[in-house]
Design a protein that fits this description.
18 helices; Rossmann fold; binds nicotinamide-adenine-dinucleotide
Length: 449
């Protein structure tokens, strides 16, 4: 089938590439000329495992094209996806300006009956706004062209996006009638050969399903962080507790890792946006507010541990200390630093007068863009280079390569021989046996308040 996709970010680029991979003829549109030029030269704007070779192969096979020319893309697509950003507005609600701008563009250029698919994460009722915006533009042109608006939220995980897209757990299709569902079923048929993954529903339920999924996952994380904070105070080790509850199939192992708080482009904004929708419809979202508040506090917790170690007695505190920071991306296997816990930590360290030597396997380019040049930040080429001249190590992102470091080498490198483990990667006993002080989340020295 011929497909057009608006937005070549994490979702649009991965979706377009995977649809091309199964044989569809895909045109990706973006307003960012530099990004489109780069993609046409084979420069992939994001880091996502497995994506680059797939983009290049499908581009070379002429199944995947990149353009800024919206009119030609709309003329090409039997199905037109909207996959642009929905960042938080000032009040926390989803900012729909990019989605609605695409809707108007579609209305201005539509020539033949088309299925318009909303893949961006959008509040309940957005499909109606998209439909109205397209209809308004068609009316202004004085033409009548039939079109459907379908909700098809995306569930890919950054860091695993290609695999998720090629083997989705479920394909949610929210539509008002059968005809567009049949079109979507044809489009996704290559992903359904093993078993049917399509879940059909009405548009509003599809829109809410995406928020419900992210809010549930964020709730699990905040719940565990809350229990970790209790564990810390009562002298328990959250890692034992985690293993003790994860074995219960009703609870399960996923998303019960305590840590430095959730970040990224989805959970923070989606929890806020859902809470905002609830409030707009007259429901006080007590649980969602608590999930958000716990996460906000948790993002500051690593720095609290740092203060707990340094702000004692006659000590000068954190001022003048140098911290090696391992991991800047909001999670492993991505270069995405949107709402990353590292950003809060670095801001707090700088505010307190500390220096930072940071390393991330993939986010260095993004870090340079986010932080710019500054005297109190050295961006290093390796994890061990970050330790050179540092007093303490703080682990913020759980990249695999940080999991079994040489603790003796870390001990020799660090002036103050202390490790703050924001993801509970290490065994406190092993670290302490190497002569290092250890602070984890809800365990280790963090037990001794
Ligand atoms: P992104 O910021 O990475 O990419 C958005 C792209 O849209 C940018 O390249 C931007 O230039 C482009 N764009 C903006 N206006 C445009 C226009 N008028 N025409 C064409 N292109 C335009 O965003 P993303 O992370 O891919 O997220 C997109 C949507 O998908 C959001 O609603 C997000 O919540 C949702 N989502 C994201 C993820 C994720 O893991 N990132 C997962 C599921 C759902």
């Amino acid at each position: 089938m011929r497909v057009a996709i608006f937005g070549t970010g994490y979702v649009g680029l991965v979706t377009g590439t995977c649809l091309a991979e199964v044989g569809h003829d895909v045109v990706c549109v973006d307003i960012d000329q530099a990004k489109v030029d780069g993609l046409n030269r084979g420069v992939i704007p994001i880091y996502e495992p497995g994506l680059e070779p797939m983009v290049k192969a499908n581009h070379a096979a002429s199944r995947l094209a990149f353009t800024t020319d919206a009119a030609s893309a709309i003329a090409h697509g039997q199905v037109v996806f909207i996959a642009v950003g929905t960042p938080p507005d000032e009040d926390g609600s989803a900012d729909l300006q990019y989605v609605l701008a695409v809707a108007r563009t579609i209305g201005r250029h539509l020539q033949v009956p088309t299925v318009v698919v909303n893949k961006s994460t959008v509040p309940v009722g957005t499909a109606d706004k998209v439909r109205a915006a397209i209809a308004e533009e068609l009316a202004a042109r004085g033409v009548e062209i039939a079109f459907d608006v379908v909700s098809n939220p995306e569930f890919l995980k950054e860091g695993d996006a290609v695999a998720d897209c090629m083997r989705p757990d479920r394909i949610i299709i929210g539509a008002a009638s059968d005809a567009p569902v049949a079109v979507m079923r044809r489009l996704y048929a290559p992903f359904n050969r093993n078993h049917d993954r399509v879940v059909e529903m009405d548009v509003r339920s599809a829109e809410l399903t995406k928020y419900a999924a992210n809010a549930m996952l964020a709730t699990k994380i905040s719940f565990m962080n809350e229990i970790a904070n209790i564990a810390e105070r009562v002298g328990a080790d959250i890692e034992h507790v985690r293993q003790g509850i994860g074995s219960d199939p009703r609870i399960g192992w996923h998303f019960i890792y305590p840590g430095a708080g959730y970040g990224g482009s989805c959970f923070p904004k989606d929890v806020q946006a859902l809470a905002r929708t609830a409030a707009q419809y007259g429901h006080a979202p007590l649980l969602l507010q608590a999930v958000e508040a716990v996460n906000e506090a948790q993002k500051g917790h690593l720095f609290e541990l740092v203060q707990r170690h340094y702000d004692r007695g006659e000590d000068e505190g954190v001022r003048g200390k140098t911290f090696a920071v391992w991991g800047l991306a909001f999670k492993p296997n991505t270069d995405d630093m949107r709402e990353a816990s590292s950003r809060r930590l670095l801001a707090q360290l700088w505010e307190a007068g500390a220096q930072v030597r940071a390393y991330d396997p993939e986010a260095m380019h993004e870090a340079r863009r986010v932080f710019g040049e500054r005297d109190d930040l050295a961006l290093c080429d390796s994890a061990f280079e970050a330790l050179e001249g540092a007093d303490a190590l703080i682990v913020v992102t759980e990249w695999k390569q940080f999991r079994s470091p040489d603790f003796t080498r870390i001990r020799q490198a660090l002036g103050d021989a202390v490790v703050f483990d924001g993801r509970n990667l290490y065994d406190p006993r092993e670290i302490e046996a190497a002569g290092l002080a250890y602070y984890g989340i809800g365990r280790g020295r963090s037990l001794h308040v």
